[in-house]
Amino acid sequence: MRPFFVNVCRNIINSTKGLNYLLVGVLQSAQESWESRASHAIDRTALLGEKLVTLGYTGSWGKDASERIYLLDQAFADADIKYAVEVSSREWRLSFSIFVLDSCRLKAADIINKLEKMYRPSTQPQRVQAESIPQHRETLKVIIPENLPVHLKDNLWEFAIYTQYDNQRSYLSDMVYRALIFRNINHTVYGIKEWDGNGAPLSLNKMARRIVVDDEFRQSLITEDPKVPEIWEKLGELADS
Predict the structure, then answer these.
(1) Range with lowest mean pLDDT among 13-22, 149-158, 213-222
(2) Model pTM greater than 0.85?
(3) For 180, what's the count of Cα atoms within 13 Å in the CB-facing half-sphere?
(4) How does pLDDT run across 4-35, given as a tens digit for each residue?
(5) 172-204 as b/e, with b when 16 or more CB fall inside 10 Å?
(6) Sign (positive/negative) of CA torsion 95, 99, 102, 106?
(7) What is the tens place of the pLDDT at every residue in 223-238?
(8) How deeply is 233 buried, as exposed, middle or buried, from its count of CB atoms within 10 A (0-12, 13-18, 19+)?
């Protein structure tokens, strides 16, 4: 019986190795496939320009990664939008981070929004008087930079995450906008890092840390846009929502 048991174990191990090789090959093939469909994409974000924004893109429902990227690539080419792309998440299905010039943000976001809704499964029927329920939800959460050096523990910056959802549920699939906002303690200097759609990182404490320790990165996010102080003013009413 012992040789038989040993042979069975060997077969299981060999089968497992073969399955692992197969899965790796499938993932590599999928990556190569979608990259080949992004024919108009720029290889490096540095070649796009200085002021870039990051837009989240999952794509139309019911299509694989290569088809979703192809649709985006063709739509951006028709709209004369230069972009770069990288994978932001491999959970469930591939999601992407799309980098475009800030001057093209609204046009690009509109295209992405339309593609996201293509073939999207219908939502559940609304309940009675559902029209009286607000279909938009906002949250604002104060955060603290992660693992700051000792000499920067008492830094002069405050941080918060502002999120907008498509309806009253706070699900990732319903996220339409997210921003990491910051200001100095005197409330005279403001900054923001934005994401459209659900492509934003779940945790932004590490990015907050980078803003504190990296002067050049922080300076690139400084803005005079009046909407940032306006978001901070919402802190009291949204913090407990």
Answers:
(1) 13-22
(2) no
(3) 24
(4) 544 545 555 555 555 454 444 444 444 457 78
(5) eeebbbbbbbbbeeeeeebbbbbbbbbbbbeeb
(6) negative
(7) 998 989 988 988 766 5
(8) exposed
What are the sequence ranges of the domains in the chain?
A: 35-117, 133-238
Using the Cα atoms of residue 140, residue 141, residue 147 and residue 148 in order, give the sign of their dihedral: positive
- CA–CA separation, 200 and 78 (whole Å): 26
Residues 215 and 237: beta-carbon distance below 8 Å:
no
Output the pLDDT for position 80.
Answer: 93
E strands in 148-226:
157-165, 175-184, 190-196, 222-223
Nearest to 223 by CA among 3, 28, 51: 51
CATH class entry, domain 35-117: alpha beta
Q: Using pLDDT thresholds of 50, 70 and 90, give the confidence band for residue 204.
A: confident
Distance from CA of residue 29 to its chain's centroid? Answer: 23
Cβ contact 55:88 at 8 Å: no
Query: For residues 205 and 212, what is the distance between their CA atoms, to the nearest angstrom?
Result: 11
